[in-house]
Amino acid sequence: MTDDGTTAAAAGTLGYEQARDELIEVVRRLEAGGTTLEESLALWERGEELAKVCRHWLEGARARLDAALAGPADSGETATAADDDG
After folding, report:
1. Taking the alpha carbons of 40, 43, 49, 50 in that order, is the dihedral positive or negative?
2. Are 43 and 26 in contact (CB under 8 A)?
3. Measured between alpha carbons, how far is 55 from 62 in angstroms, rounded to an integer?
4. Which tens digit of pLDDT belongs to each residue from 28-82?
5. CA separation for the pair 15, 45 (Å, rounded)
6. Hey, CA dihedral for 59, 60, 63, 68, is it positive or negative?
7. How far is it, in rounded angstroms, from Cα 68 to Cα 73?
8. Taking CA 39 as the corner, what is the angle to CA 54 and CA 7, rounded to the nearest 5 degrees?
9. Can you say whether the dihedral through the CA atoms of 57, 58, 63, 69 is positive or negative?
10. Per-residue three-class SS string for the chain
11. Which pLDDT band holds residue 5 (cuts at 50, 70, 90)?
């Protein structure tokens, strides 16, 4: 249930906010107690899967930010170097 294929499929169907909200609910239920061992294990496994989905979205966002931040800086350095020559 928590293999990379399942996580990739879940990431395709769950948005970050949906996964985060469900993860918050899973944690709340685990912290409240009152569930059987089997229910607790199922909740834990679901929480792990949701955490991976959130991590996947956040890593993608980080990569996009890094690319956006690197792009203009590289262009600015090239323009500055060209201006220095002339």
Report:
1. negative
2. yes
3. 10
4. 999 999 999 999 999 999 999 999 999 999 999 999 999 999 976 555 555 555 5
5. 19
6. negative
7. 9
8. 25
9. positive
10. CCCHHHHHHHHHHCCHHHHHHHHHHHHHHHHHCCCCHHHHHHHHHHHHHHHHHHHHHHHHHHHHHHHHHHHHHHHHHHHHHHHHHC
11. low
Residues making up the chain, counted from first to last: 86
55: tokens are: 């991590």
- Predicted confidence band of residue 2 (pLDDT cuts 50, 70, 90): very low
pTM value surpassing 0.70: no
Task: Specify whether the CB–CB gap between 15 and 54 falls below 8 A.
Answer: no
Give the tokens for residue 80: 């500055």
